[in-house]
Structure formats: structure tokens, C-alpha cells
């Protein structure tokens, strides 16, 4: 199933961090920049959407080659309507990742999750590191075809022009 990224096609999410002002580093499409946690583990990234949002996949750009002990190892995803009712929906362990780590939320839940709040918890790092680096975060929704896509052409002339060759 194809997916569209919420950061480009849906409402902008409000991101909350331990260090204010770092949310732009996770959404700047530049894998050379990163958000660095500060404080005790677990570290968290919380996304709050202004409306009920379907989420299919969460993707994190991690780089063990550059970050070593700052690279997240054990991740958990929590979802809910508010920060008070978050439920754990996925636990994932990375193994020296370099590039995009895609966390599919549909496998355990037979479809996308409907939520207002999404929390990414970094429970531990490689080499027992304390703080972590996350270079990018993207959240994907399921692809929904437009109503116009359902129209079927009946004339031969329109059918010939309906596809690019």
C-alpha cells in the first residue's frame, strides 16, 4: 500500500522535546543535522496532531556510523488521544542502523492507528550511551485515492488520453 507523508500533505504536528526549539532539525530533510536528547533515559519525542489522524508508519533516520553510542537501540511507540491515555503499540530493537528505520504500526493492529498524540520513546542506545541523536522523523498516513480517481472513462477518445505512455 502506498503512503503519503503527513508532514507534506497533512496538518503540521506540534513537536515537544526536552530541549525547546529543536523540532525543525527533525523535519529539515537534512540527514547531516540531528536532534540530541539531554537528560536521563528514556528520551521521548511527542507529536500532537490538531485533528484525529490515521498513522500507518513512523520512519526515523538514524546513523550508527556517525553517532555510535548516541544511536537509539530500543524504541517504543505509544499512541492515544492525549498524553494521559497513551498506550504502547510497538516495541522495536535496531541493530546498528544507517538510514531510514521504518516502524510499521499496521502489522499488530490490522490497519492504521487513529490518534491525536504519538510518542516515540528511546529506551536505550547502542554501547550503553546516555544521550541520543535522531536525524529525521517522518510520519506516514495510508494513501487514500481521490473520489475523482473512481470515475471511469467510457469513450475511446478519453480512454486513450487517460494514461501516459
Automatic annotation (TrEMBL):
Organism of provenance: Tieghemiomyces parasiticus
CDD domains associated with the record: APC10
Matches recorded under PANTHER family: ANAPHASE-PROMOTING COMPLEX 10, ANAPHASE-PROMOTING COMPLEX SUBUNIT 10
Keyword Plastid (UniProt): no
UniProt family annotation: Belongs to the APC10 family.
Protein name, per record: Anaphase-promoting complex subunit 10
Record domain DOC: where: 1-165
Biological processes annotated in GO: anaphase-promoting complex-dependent catabolic process; cell division; protein K11-linked ubiquitination
Stated role: Component of the anaphase promoting complex/cyclosome (APC/C), a cell cycle-regulated E3 ubiquitin-protein ligase complex that controls progression through mitosis and the G1 phase of the cell cycle.
Pfam families: ANAPC10
Keyword annotations of the record: Cell cycle, Cell division, Mitosis, Ubl conjugation pathway
Amino acid at each position: 500500500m502506498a503512503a503519503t507523508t503527513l508532514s507534506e500533505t497533512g496538518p503540521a504536528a506540534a513537536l515537544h522535546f526536552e530541549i525547546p526549539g529543536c523540532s525543525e532539525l527533525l523535519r529539515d530533510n537534512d540527514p547531516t543535522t540531528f536532534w540530541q536528547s539531554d537528560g536521563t533515559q528514556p528520551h521521548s519525542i511527542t507529536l500532537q496532531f490538531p485533528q484525529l489522524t490515521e498513522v500507518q508508519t513512523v520512519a526515523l533516520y538514524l546513523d550508527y556510523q556517525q553517532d555510535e553510542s548516541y544511536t537509539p537501540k530500543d524504541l517504543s511507540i505509544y499512541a492515544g488521544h492525549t498524553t494521559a491515555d497513551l498506550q504502547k503499540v510497538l516495541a522495536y530493537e535496531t541493530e546498528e542502523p544507517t538510514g531510514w528505520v521504518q516502524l510499521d504500526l499496521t502489522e499488530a493492529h490490522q490497519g492504521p492507528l487513529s490518534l491525536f498524540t504519538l510518542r516515540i520513546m528511546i529506551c536505550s542506545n547502542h554501547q550503553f550511551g546516555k544521550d541520543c541523536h535522531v536525524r529525521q522523523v517522518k510520519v506516514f498516513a495510508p494513501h487514500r485515492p481521490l473520489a475523482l480517481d473512481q470515475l471511469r472513462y467510457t469513450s475511446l477518445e478519453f480512454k486513450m488520453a487517460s494514461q501516459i505512455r
